[in-house]
Amino acid sequence: MLVIGYGNAGRGDDGLGPAFAERILAAGVQDCAVDIDYQLTVDHALQVAGASTVVFVDAMIGVEGPFRFSPVRADKAADLTSHSLQPEAVLTLAEMLYDAAPEAFVLGIAGASFGEVAEGLSGPARRNLGQAEAFFLDWVRARPATTGAVMTDA
Amino acid sequence: MAEPRLIEISPVTRVEGHGKVTIHLDANNQVDEARLHIVEFRGFERFIRGRLLWEVPVIVQRLCGICPVSHHLAAAKAMDVICGVDDLPPTAEKMRRLMHYGQVMQSHVLHFFHLAAPDLLFGFGAPAEKRNIFEVIKENPELGRRAIAMRKFGQDIIEATAGKKIHGTGAIPGGINRNLPVPARDAFLAVIDEMCLWAQDALALARRYTQEHDHLVAEFASFPSNHMSLVRDSDGALDLYHGKLRALNAVGGTIFEKLDYARYHEVLVEDVRPWSYMKFPFIKELGPEKGWYRVGPLARMNTVSFIDTPLANAALAELKQETSGAPNNSTLVNHWARMIEVLHCVEKIRELLHDPDLQGTDLRATGQRREEGTGVIEAPRGNLIHHYKVDENDTVTYCNLIVSTTHNNEGMNRAVKDVAVKHLSGQERITEGMLNHVEVAIRAYDPCLSCATHALGQMPLQIELFDADGGLLDSRQRSA
Description:
The complex is a heterodimer. In chain A, 32% of the residues lie in helices and 20% in strands.
């Protein structure tokens, strides 16, 4: 399994993705590689193509509840308007270029404070992060063991 | 009679961060005014104040998710000065250079293949659903695989030299905190020749596009300007890491030459305009009307005397032939210049990988403490200035940054106006393709709008039309 936590820790709650990834790294989840980045870019397609399961973790705006966890698939209608890509676009590139279609999920963690130049998460974001982490660790434990290839780039 | 209208493109797509274009049409549908508004980081210089000088090269990487290494190195260079270090140990300087070439290479490759190629391959006015990286890959999957492999190569160089892919700590005040182990060196050497071949192919693609579209290139956002960059102190060669400032006018005349970049504030003034958060720098002696200038890949090709790597230098000679040696003022030629720099970076990386200094152990120098330091680097998008003052407790008391996109602010605004006048004036109906022409002109500068915030749920593009009274005439939302 590959977990990619992305966002800018210098922009308040935009750092939720990296903060989650750091926690999963610290937890030492078995057979789980962790990557931390500012944003998703085209080269993540190569990394994703080498994994059996991928979990994209990002801050989220406008979500009800502390987090949202949902499957995600390749989608050619994905947003392509920046250097930064959405998970659907990364999966599409992995499929088109490397004929790879890993099982994939998005874990969006609700943030409250974005845009300001500030380090550290807001109080609500910290609480949501804790709940998302607990959910994820339970989810991993409940899954059958996998033997898929894992790339490490943390 | 038709009413005057205001067109907004907000945010501009396929650039980094958020920008907005407003185009005012008069009652006869002629473009009256066109402006690029950029929502810039306004709190960063304040954020840095109060920090310890040692942590600044790491913290400044939060400025940008696309070129954090440029900020890392510019800040480290400024802190070298504050620490009294004017000459780094060879291993330290070469490791930093390796990091920088890896950064410039991967940044340029990402821009060219992902953001510019759809416009160049399918045309600016092609349907929006056609102008994207998926369609490029559908037609040429090998091109896509090469682009990703080149991008990864550059990222791996950054990781090997900075310690981490993001928030690297490699460059420290006075030096570097690691050398390049032999196994890592050998892994890079194993693929460097392939990278060089691919860089040449990419360069050929950009050159061919420019030459085959010479009429478009000549008229599209093409206008005279001054150009500024660092050049190597000894001979005026292209030097992306260090040098002195050179500024030329639109026909190649010297404005200033071999200027110590610590004196940047003596020759550059940052103008403020009420409608924009971003400043408008200009060369003081020429004034705001005549003193604005451009930076970046094409500006560098214009200012340098030559390139010290053979393949890139031959490519520079070809580019210069287009204008008989005079500065090239065509915005779209930036793509060609960008690919020359990719080849240059690959050549420099190969040269460095064969240098045993990369395995040296003298990593850091010390000197007599100073209170002020300026670090300047040629970042992927152009000249980048970091200027700091610190107190006796090593705390930053002053920070001034002039980033590449700020240097290019006036140039980008002129490009928007030029294209808007040529492609939107007199049109009864504004199509998505016409608006894309405006965005193409902006994208040629690869502006980094200093915003890596991208939380899920944000809207990528909204276009709104307003009448003279501010009433909304039309609205368009683009999701792809």
